[in-house]
């Protein structure tokens, strides 16, 4: 690897008389790696290194140059990156060319040549260079797993069950007027459908959440960019987030033209609307756990409060699904119970087993589903060598899937209805959540109420006489639909 950085420092006044003193300073501080020349009120530095990163050396020198020039009543006003040539070795040869912001990148086998020019001091102080290098490595690595499926391993499957019918429950509920599409991927539930969903929620709360000691919280539905940056959602799925814009002002005078156009056109003038909105700084809840972690940021949890067991059911989640929508099981807005657990590795292992036990009871004894469990690990984690390491065996996700008879083939037509995940230190570190003595891990389990509902109705139908007796304890009878003329 090689780092060749040319930069310039603006001084508060001319200082060419300090050239000799500068030469000695640079030799003492950086040996042969740094050279400098003072021209008027500019100090031009060149740092070439094959061991350390030149931008780190320059920032180290900058702080000490302030003392050197300060003795002569000369201040350092700013530092500017003029040109930076970087050569690094990659683990793999790129399959195709890539682009990154702020830099030009060329490849020669596994060698990447990076050129950065004409950047202000924020670029150096905020460590953009290291992030660019990391981004290039990530993009090359991603080329080797793009398009690959997740690692999936069946770990348990129930016996086959006799289905009540083979129709799509969403289509049939629409025909009966139980549900109505209210926009892209957003549904209105009339009393019969709403009562089924509330029964699913009651089962989840009374049979899973409360028996295991989870306590309820209520959170806002808006999530800040700062939170999503820490969790990785904003870089991982920016095209799936619904963004929120605040109005620039609530003064009616500022909105007068928008209102006038609305009255005349009877539709929204989008260009005029955008003039009155601030750029987004937050979005609608994508998953409930980010705000839960953000609420705990910087806190130290007492040992006798471990494991911390909390859940939220107050906040709908919104995801832009584009062309992937179907019925109520794949939507833009859905309702979940989000379970979050924070504790030691040993405590989380026990919690996972208890959750699996309670879900098994619900799916077998109450809903009477044909279902299965699978160990799921994203392909990129396999490539990173995480799967199979003993210390990482607990990390990952177990998916619970139910067969959908209306889709047909038992070999492939399954819907993920539930998961249990352990993410290790990822989020507790990101939000600086600590314990008095213990090393903390965390995990989550999302109960998708629409998914439970679809799996149940797909196998048992809409006629209540085909429903299991155990389920009818939670929903003895369906409320009648309103009559519309």
Characterization of the model:
The structure is a single chain. Helices cover 33% and strands 27% of the residues. The chain is elongated. The chain has 485 residues and is α+β, with helices and mostly antiparallel strands.
Short structural description:
This protein has helices at 19-30, 54-70, 121-125, 128-142, 169-176, 191-209, 225-231, 233-236, 256-265, 270-275, 289-295, 345-366, 379-383, 426-430, 449-460, 469-472; strands spanning 2-11, 34-39, 42-49, 76-89, 104-108, 111-119, 151-157, 179-181, 187-189, 215-217, 222-224, 243-244, 282-284, 300-301, 308-312, 317-318, 333-334, 336-343, 371-377, 396-403, 414-424, 434-435, 441-448. By secondary structure, the protein is an alpha+beta fold.
- The helix count comes to 16
Rough outline: elongated
Largest sheet: 8 strands, mixed
Beta-strand portion reads 25-35%
Distance between the termini: 77 Å
Number of strands: 23
Mean of residue pLDDT? 93
| Uncertain stretches | 383-390
Computed structural class: alpha+beta
Strand order of the largest sheet: 7-19-20-21-23-18-15-10
Helix proportion range: 25-40%
What Rg do the Cα atoms give? Answer: 29 Å
Layout of helices and strands:
Layout: E1 2-11, H1 19-30, E2 34-39, E3 42-49, H2 54-70, E4 76-89, E5 104-108, E6 111-119, H3 121-125, H4 128-142, E7 151-157, H5 169-176, E8 179-181, E9 187-189, H6 191-209, E10 215-217, E11 222-224, H7 225-231, H8 233-236, E12 243-244, H9 256-265, H10 270-275, E13 282-284, H11 289-295, E14 300-301, E15 308-312, E16 317-318, E17 333-334, E18 336-343, H12 345-366, E19 371-377, H13 379-383, E20 396-403, E21 414-424, H14 426-430, E22 434-435, E23 441-448, H15 449-460, H16 469-472
Parallel strand pairs: 10-15, 14-22
Antiparallel strand pairs: 1-3, 1-4, 2-3, 4-6, 5-6, 7-19, 8-9, 11-13, 12-13, 15-18, 16-17, 18-23, 19-20, 20-21, 21-23
Helix pairs in contact: 1-2, 6-12, 6-15
